[in-house]
Specification:
Blueprint (H helix, E strand, L loop, with lengths): L10 E3 L83 H12 L1 H11 L10 H5 L6 H6 L1 H16 L4 E7 L2 E6 L40 H4 L16 H20 L7 E3 L1 H22 L1 H9 L1 H20 L10 H8 L2 H15 L1
Antiparallel strand pairs: 1-4, 2-3
The chain binds zinc ion (ZN).
Length: 363
Amino acid sequence: MARFSSPTALVTTLALLGLVAGSAACGSSEERAAYDPNQPAQIDTDGDGIPDSPDPNAPGATPAPQPGRVGCSGTSYTEPLPTTASLAGLTFSQAKAGEYLLSALERRYPLGKWLVDEGVARPLPGQPGTCLERFLSDKSSASRVLAQAGTVVHECGHFLDIGKSAARSAAYVIREDLELSCKSGDTTSRGGKTFARSLLKSDAYYAKRKACGGQVRQGCDMYADIYLTGSATDAAFDSGDQGFNSLLEEATQYVNSIATGLAFADQLQNQRVSERDGILTFLWYVERYLKMAREEYPDAYATLSTDACWRQAILSVWDRGWFYVEASRGKDNLEIDAPAIEELAKDPALTVEIDKLRSLECQ
Ligand SMILES: [Zn+2]
């Protein structure tokens, strides 16, 4: 079965602020505009007596952005942003809702359309329907279809990556021109070298934002209810049993979710979606996972930090994720509790984990 457990775009209405968890998917503010998530932290996280953010000439300093190198763009990362091109002239009908969505994507977010086309071309073995057929569920109106665009692009992105992955390697299609396929990313019990993502519920950061327990509300982590479930040691398969490869895959697709949400933010009528919450949560998970790996699972950390493929994949998703967090800042209908999550994701004791990978990759 698919490597990825099955969650979704979490959609609420302004009136309810309650979950309308759309198509269950995936198989299974403060003023800190000047914040630089790649800025080295002014602390000595590993206690080696060397500040994590020494002067630029000191050993271990985070290298300056190098936009031409994969994983080394930092805050200089850029790609063509979605546009606000007019949707006038597109004809909506329930019978051709999928074609309508693709046409709208073509006008406003061509990369999103490409991801859907590529995902549609790769149905999951043994499962009926394309990603578009499976995840465009509400075809009642043009507005409802566009509100699901983020989910469709996200899920089709999974189908594309699954289709390109092999037994021991995970493919990450970041853009048309950037694809990485990295080895041994699943848990040790599933043939890889990492640990279950559910173990994040045992770290020191979990208490700062615990799982909501099935409710959708501010102040708790509704993604933990979907992605960090289960026990790493029992026999039953749970979503959270999957390893780092799956965590980074979700992060990859949550970038696509926010990018697509940005494309159609003006089309959401009295609706809020959680696209900014989603990517910020997964950026936070990636940092936490790296910290736990470095401190408690040396074999896992060696895999992720010494393999250029993993470093480049992590750093590319990180940079692209923050690019869209910034691009979507102020779009209130694309978030539910994003400022609180952003503060957690910017904890210097966690961002230093990205600095460490950056130093290894980009020196
Ligand atoms: Zn997903």
